[in-house]
Structures
1.
Amino acid sequence: MSKNTLYDKVWDSHTVARLDSGQDQIFIGLHLIHEVTTPQAFGMLKEIGSGVAFPGRTMGTVDHIIPTLSQIRPYEDELAEKMMAALEQNVNEFGVRFLHLDSGKQGIVHVIGPELGLSQPGMTIACGDSHTSTHGAMGSLGFGIGTTEVGHVLATQTLALNRLKVKRIEVTGSLGPGVTPKDVTLRVIHDLGIKGGLGFAYEYGGEVFDAMSMEGRMTVCNMSIEGGARIGYVNPDQTTFDYLEGREFSPEGEAWERGVAYWNEIASGDDAEYDDVYEIAGESIEPMVTWGINPGHSIGISQPLPEIGSFAGEDRKTVEHGYDFMDLRPGESILGTKVDVAFLGSCTNSRISDLREGARLIKGNKVHPGVRMLVVPGSQQVKQQAEEEGLHEIFTEAGAEWREAGCSMCLGMNPDQLVGAERSISTSNRNFIGRQGSPRGRTHLGSPAVVVSSAIAGCIADPREMGEQA
Amino acid sequence: MSTKRIEKIVGKAIPMPRDDIDTDRITPARFLKSITFEGIEKALFCDERENTPDHPVDNPAHKGANMMFVGKNFGSGSSREHAPQALKRFGVDVLVGISFAEIFAGNCFAIGVPLGVASAEDVNELIRQAQEEPETRFTVDIGNSTVSYGDRVVPIDIQETRKAAFLAGTWDMLANLRGNLPQVEEVAASLPYVTNFESEAQ
């Protein structure tokens, strides 16, 4: 059993009771809510005549269904309008804070939490969305939950949870040129498998994480759940404190000092014990891209597609299905695979650093005429910052579409969707069948650099070779 | 919020042999645009059913089944409760598989759908039995942790604490959680960030 890790310390300090079910009742420090997974939960409160126990520890926004083109109400999509209206009514009725479209602060929950300083080290954070693991980058524990559990948090500010084991993922050395945090997380999932994290929280550490930006850490923690780990986190350090200082909900003055002391205290101790440790040499990580139908189906971009025989017998059925669905063959190179759509956005890669990286690479180039490229900032603040820096002009001059903040083409809940058997290269987090809105649509996941190099080439391309082409 | 004891489920089974079936496939995202779970069962596997004429869910031989046998890592991906809700509302009262994703398993527990885990060999046997003799009536015995048909008894693993809650009818956690509200206040007061570090915590 793990000992003296951040996970253990935060778990213990947030334990309310041991339940008859054998689970622990855990206090939730921040509850983020959005339109998709809450209407039934508020309905549950009405049914039992309960209010929201800690409205001050709850924050709402809208992200999944929101159109990124025209946001004029009522929305063209009647169902989306209905969900939006339900959320507005619920937050009003229950006195919950809400970052509306006209707040200038709306965005994807996992972008705005850290951005506003709402997500802080040592907190437990819950949201009815599996990518809540993102907030672990702040040194917090982020729990993705279902709707019934959203109801539990609204009514009691607690969850009934099973304690997880802790696996330390140590990435040593440094990353090569063109290799990004997205490649690190895809490599972890590649190595440990999509169910390797079942029953575990992942603690990410080592020199690569010490040197990684906060936004990079968010990208990695975001995809922990794709490896089966409900929780992923990085211990808070000076990088964390520098990021947090001066944000809207961050403490100030003496309170800030007390905050830093607390945050240092809750980090894993030098004597921390883990249930398991996995080590990767940073130098061995290549830009990664997925070829199949789950985030574990990935390769280093220059590698040939894996032979079916190289997988464990029990995995081969899914691998064959993946090759068949994606219309690819083992042994071939993935480079040169034609793409129809390039998507730069989602809670994985829509922060300002992602957009800066994309703009840097696309500047002076054109999106291939056969490719539709969408660039979708993760929040209104990211959008504003990007526009102040002129990034939007770089993207539109290259032929990409510049959109309003939202989840967009990560999932088929808004007008941004693949059509028919379109093939996309995407910075999002899931290449599941049907994920991007078309039952036959095909998704390849990659970093912002891979998405931009591919958008320019019209096919999957290695960002490390961009300079040589020019 | 009344809950009921869940001790034994008897009926036919739908075999779903594939591994890594994610919640986007169980309930595609575009069907989440609703403010209730009512009718969500219509979305159950709808995309693959459309493209698969002999999909197990539509196979008349499995009509009226109340359990599902699945492969490994069932329910991975999105946390959407719509997936277990769709299964439950379609009539699936229990699932037996090789393994289940974490959040999916939590959601199933929260709405009173037991999950049984068995070896790949045993699950494949159950799947074959349901495919080859779809009229077979299986009995999932929660207390004894078994699935049986004919003379055959297959052991399954049900997380002990969840098993106890199903048997006692205490799986709806809300009442338990609400009962501890005074302690919740105490824990909140002990956490310095709850006041945004404006005052020393107790």
2.
Amino acid sequence: MSTRRALLFAVPLAAAAAAGGGFYIVLHRMQQGTFDPRGVPTVLLNKRVPGFRLPGLIDAGFASTDLFASGRPILVNFWATWCPPCIEEHPVLMAMQAEGIPIWGIAYKDKRSAAVDYLERNGNPYARNAIDAPGRVAIDWGLTGVPETFLVDGDGFVRWHMSGPLTLDMVHQQIRPLMRKYTA
Amino acid sequence: MTRRHLALASLALLLAGGSVAWAISDPAEALPDPRQEARAEAIGRQLRCLVCQNESIEDSGADLARDLRHIVRQRVAAGDSDAQVVDWVVARYGDFVRLRPPFEWQTVLLWGSPLLALAVGGLGVLVHRHYRPAPPAPLNEAEQARLRDLMET
């Protein structure tokens, strides 16, 4: 009888403790930005970026071949003027540009004039600009929404991915170390 | 028919008709060949809309879902098999895009959860039976006499 009472006490307590521990880990990682419950893991991770060629927004645009032979890590950022989280992310991109991290921008399902206006008004954090107005190339990248950012190494392999706005914490904890690692 | 019956009947009708009536909002999206269109709809219903995540691309109003519906129809019209179309989308979005996940090592727990629940429940029943206290011994003479006394007063 006493073992039964002990079990009745210990089993729910252990279950509650395990659940609490799990919630703590998940919430902590969500706060840090290393876990997004709605995020879809990209199948591109450690694979080469898909073949594409996109027209430029301001200058000549770029293609997958430019990423295959860039020789240095580059952040590829999908964005849009109609996307509030992209506007929220914009200062983080400007800060990365200021410290010399190359970012290539792809305006997703946007009007060229709106995108150009936006960059003129708020500052252009991108080293190169392209536009995917139909959003067809984005599907080849497995894009689920904007903003979405891919860290592509010097040979065109995707090494890191974030769906959702970047934060300064992510820059410090994840992007900077990875940029250093792949700048070898 | 009472008012309540009427309400239940209309609810049933709505639920039965809903999935058909709400698929594809714009008839201009549909393929001209009804057999191909039916195939495209069946494929689309297996694919998750990555924006809303709990709807299929056939049911979703999101832009990305519309683009994917369009691509599914293009590929069906071009003569791809159902599996080829699904594989094309899975190659870009991973297995998460399937509303019905494949059975593999990573999904064993997911598919096995009904069996697991059954096993845990069965174990509970067994443990409960094992620990059930024995029925109390029948009353002896003196106790029975006392019970009679109590009931008569």
